[in-house]
Amino acid sequence: MSPILIRALIIMFALLIIASITIRVMSLRSPERDWTELRQRINTWWWIVIVFALAISTPRAISLTIFAIISFLALKEYLTLIPTRRTDHMPLLWAYIAIPIQYYWIGIEWYSMFLVFIPVYVFLFLPMRMVLIGNNKDFLHSASMLHWGVMTTVFAISHVAYLTVLPGKPETGPLLVIFLVVLTECNDIAQYLWGKSFGRIKVIPKVSPNKTLEGLVGGVVTTMFLAWLLGGILTPLSGWESLLVGLLIGITGFIGDVVMSAVKRDIGVKDSGKLLPGHGGILDRLDSLIYTAPLFFHVLYYLHY
């Protein structure tokens, strides 16, 4: 492992340690306030960072397998939430089979197939397989929900894995993953802290009552600053490009969060699952990454590859 990658991992865990100490100090200074949600968010990010650190510090085959398992768990959790037709067990099986195939394209670095496999081939194949069953009831509703699940849990998350095989030095890909995960993590925590401290104006109260304009703006500005600070160290981005990417991650992280909130409200659940201790399911914590990963990847690819 290269020295810069070791330093980057140390920075990532140092940020978590600082966040853990900060919440401890704030709890002691203001014991009357409820810090449970923030504490749970930080504890869950510990688990996520450990998994991603393991994924980027192992050989390619193991690394892609870890990312594929994350997609599998996320898709499984999603499919347990939504109502599915009894007759759709084979299309569901094919949706799971798409996971290793998508990550195989990454393993052999077939970029064009990576881009079109799910949005074109899988999206056309799954409805066709559902038609062959002969059940027309709720067909469009079922096909749409399955498409959304595969798009978010497999296609979106697989962009994080593709960062690890981009051309460059061996540590280039892992450093890009660290940059993306750290910024997404800090944006999530910063928006919560700014909103908790200064939040007054509700942004979308019917979907996520705790989201405030002050939290959103504070989180985005914090993320832009961190992007500017880390961009020149961990990525090929210039100063202005880093600020642009920070803005992008700050806003799209917020969008991913509220979109998943809308999905859970539509289904009628508070948490997507119980996989991560103290903070619901895997989708509850990857909601921001589902939006930030593909957009960060394509902006980076457009600018430097």
Automatic annotation (TrEMBL):
- Keywords recorded for this protein, A-Z: Membrane, Nucleotidyltransferase, Transferase, Transmembrane, Transmembrane helix
Q: Which residue ranges does UniProt annotate as crossing the membrane?
A: 5-25, 45-75, 87-105, 111-133, 145-163, 175-194, 215-237, 243-263, 283-303
Note the InterPro entries from the entry.
PC_trans
According to UniProt, the reaction catalysed is: a 1,2-diacyl-sn-glycero-3-phosphate + CTP + H(+) = a CDP-1,2-diacyl-sn-glycerol + diphosphate
**E.C. number(s) listed in UniProt:** 2.7.7.41
Q: Which GO terms describe its biological process?
A: CDP-diacylglycerol biosynthetic process; peptidoglycan-based cell wall biogenesis
Q: Pathway of this protein?
A: Phospholipid metabolism; CDP-diacylglycerol biosynthesis; CDP-diacylglycerol from sn-glycerol 3-phosphate: step 3/3
**Pfam families registered for this protein in UniProt:** CTP_transf_1
Q: Where in the cell is it found?
A: Membrane
Membrane topology is: Multi-pass membrane protein
The domain of life for this entry's organism is Bacteria
User: What is one term from the GO cellular component aspect held by the record?
Assistant: plasma membrane
Q: Name one GO molecular function term.
A: phosphatidate cytidylyltransferase activity
Family under the similarity heading: Belongs to the CDS family.
| PANTHER family in the cross-refs | PHOSPHATIDATE CYTIDYLYLTRANSFERASE
Can you say what this protein is called?
Answer: Phosphatidate cytidylyltransferase
Originating organism: Limnobaculum zhutongyuii
